Amino acid sequence: MATNSLQRLKRNDALAGYGFMTPALLVFLIFLFLPIFFAIFVSFTNWNGITPFRQEGAYEFVGFENYYNLLIKRGIRQKDFYNSLKNTVYYALGVVPFQTLFALMLAVLVNQKWLRGKGVFRTAFYFPSVSSSVVISLIFMWLFGKGGIVNIGLSALIPIYEPITWLDDSRGIIHELLGLFGITRATAGDWVNVRLATLTLWEWISGPSITLLLIMILNTWTTIGSLMIIYLAALQDIPEQMHEAAMIDGANRWQVFHKITVPMLTPATFFVVTLGLISTLQVFDQIFVITSGGPAKTTMTIAYGVYQSGFRNSDMGLAAASALVLFVIIFVLTLVQRRFVKESLYS
Amino acid sequence: MSTTTQPTSSTSSVASKSSALKRSMTVVLYGGLIVLALLEFGPFILTLSNSFKCLPAIQAEPQALIPLPPFGVDCRLPNGASLPASATTTRLTFNPGLEGYRRIFQFNLDRWLINSVIYSVSVTLLRLIIDSLAGYALARIRFPGNRVLFFLILGTMMIPGIVLVIPRFLILKELVLLNTYQGLIFALAADAFGVFLMKQFFESVPKEIEEAAFVDGANRLTLFFRVVMPMATPALTALAIFSFQGTWNAFLDPLIIVGGNQDLLNLPLGLALLRGQFGNTLEWNVFLAGSVITTLPLALVFFFFQRYFVQGISYSGLKG
Q1: pTM of the model as a whole
Q2: Could A127 and B44 be called an inter-chain contact, meaning their C-beta atoms sit closer than 8 Å?
């Protein structure tokens, strides 16, 4: 082929490439790339979200004030932020390990060759993650309501069970557990009154409230199905011979699972945990529908706080700042997690 | 996929003790799986049956699952008082009626339903075209910046939706697209996951067919619509299902973009805002009926196209 026609082909390729990309790039530019910069921009202003942004005097530059109010300056904003950070972290730490373990367990069970009715089980497990988060939240509100079926069922099964008002119980579960051993705020010693970022240590160690626990159960219940599908796909990629070879060498089932299956699933685990972290750290829909952050702000999460300060309290600057702090937290945790998984892969 | 031709390791003289152990293990495993399946799917069955009950019956006997005639009970007595629970339900059975469904339609549900269809269908169609054009370019066409763009797009999957909420609100407000159908549809018209899925798919199909057509002088665009798209049906089906499901269930974006106009709400948003109006005393037959109507279209899509959900995950290369 002559050089100039080759060059023409190359140029055509470039044109075609950009042409094909244009519609997607337009959407991404307007709704993904630009917003990142705007979010940073807004976080340095005191825009109220109502005055048109380009109007004269719609906002002032306030430098790092929003970040300062959120993270450092003592006051209600700082207290609210660290409280929502605490709740969010308890939420993620509670949900991610459980849903990952359950998903893995279900995938291994459903993948068994001798199992009949695989399709039925897969469908039943997967169906909750197809449904709308709002619908699931409503269903859970109903099931866990005051005279709801969960309380009816638990009372019937466990004679000593006293119905819990799941939807309105701000008691922290770690506080309650400590209480079983006779440890209360009064008896725990002086150290619990030490304040760290406006909250006392006693407040920090509360654990999720009963109501937050309910939403954690809901989240786990919803997501294990889709995570199971990811594990199933990964399981089917493991060559059968590896298991057989190990069995012939005298390994028992548990050893095969522990030493071969789990390590082979590491990339899938990384993916499942990353997905889990990203979604749990921004939990929003369920909070909006079920509690609006209550009772006693124990289900207030960072994402819900962003919505509240931006769209309810007309403080877009503060909202943008807390959203970006959340972004940084998610980013750092994902990197740490990646490091962790990699190390366990090569050790 | 599972291999059926594997020889089962036959140790012919298995002691009867170990086979009894095996059998009881099997029973335990099946039992466990059935309990888990009931826990996962049971709430939907409860929701479905209770959505057909009168309010007092839901409160008194939520566990009654078996519908018995007379059907179509009227939940109110001629004098307007509501029927007592005992008139329409027992421990296990209940007489179904449509009060919840009648009431939820009085709350503008038909409008939400139409809006949900409009959003989901338009977004799905747009994504099918836009995502596959982009995915194809990234997989097949060599142009400067190809890889950089790919990683940029992939990177956006890491951005939490909540970070985008405020700037999207700002941008749409400036474009005068806030509280319009177009605003929400444009914001969702392409997604990084879809581009990624299509790119992975196109990389997995052999180039030869396209190359033959290309040498024949077809231009890129004709080639794409005549040759490439028809080959991509499985991946496009998966993409369509994911997009439809995602848009149907969308909540945060509609809340911010169209939440200011009562006539533009989709089903989840309509239900959530209605729940806010009710405060702490929800009429559960109304909300359960709304939940059933919201879930049903997806349930149908899911049961008919189930295998594509699984396929979609494998195309995107997320396996292993």
Answers
A1: 0.91
A2: yes
**DSSP secondary structure string for all residues of A15-68:** HHHHHHHHHHHHHHIIIIIHHHHHHHHHHTB---SSS-TTSTTS--B-TTHHHH
Cβ contacts (< 8 Å) between A126 and chain B: which residues? 309
Alpha carbon B90 to chain centroid, angstroms: 35
Structure tokens at A254: 């548990």
* Residue B67, strand partner residues: B94
Q: What is the DSSP letter of A309?
A: I
Mind spelling out the 3-state secondary structure of A248-269?
HCCCCHHHHHHHHHHHHCHHHH
Let me know: does B62 contact A148? Beta carbons within 8 Å.
yes
DSSP class per residue in B170-211: HHHHHTT-TTSHHHHHHHTS--HHHHHHHHHHHHHS-SHHHH
| Rounded distance between C-alpha atoms, residue A208 and residue A89, angstroms | 9
Residue A61's DSSP bridge partners are A45
Interface contact A323, partner B, CB < 8 A: yes
Give B82-126 pLDDT, tens digit per residue: 888 888 888 899 999 999 999 999 998 999 999 999 999 999 999
Q: The tokens of B270 are what?
A: 């309509």
- According to DSSP H, which parts of A46-166 are helical? 65-71, 76-110, 118-130, 133-143, 149-157
Contacts of B136 in chain A (CB under 8 A): 20
If we measure between CA atoms, which residue out of A342, A300, A302, A299 comes closest to residue A322? A302
Chain A residues with beta carbon closer than 8 angstroms to that of B1 = 236
Is residue A245 less than 8 Å (CB to CB) from chain B?
A: no
Task: Calculate the CA dihedral of residues B118, B122, B125, B129 and round it to 10 degrees.
Answer: 180
What 3-state DSSP class applies to B11? coil
Set of chain B residues whose Cβ sits within 8 Å of the Cβ of A17? 137, 141-143, 146
In tens, the pLDDT along B149-199 reads: 999 988 888 888 889 999 999 999 999 999 999 999 999 999 999 999 999
Residues of chain A in contact with residue B255, where contact means CB-CB under 8 angstroms, are: 288
User: Choosing among B163, B173, B269, which should be mutated to test the A contact, i.e. which has the most A CBs within 10 A?
Assistant: B163
Question: Distance, in angstroms, between A63 CA and closest chain B CA?
Answer: 18
Nearest CA-CA distance, residue A265 and chain B, Å: 6
- AA identity, residue B101: Y
Q: For residue B62, give the nearest of B40, B47, B78 by alpha carbon.
A: B47
To probe the interface with B, which of A6, A27, A166 has the most B CB atoms within 10 Å? A27
Structure tokens at A335: 């990197």
Six token digits for residue B308: 């594509």
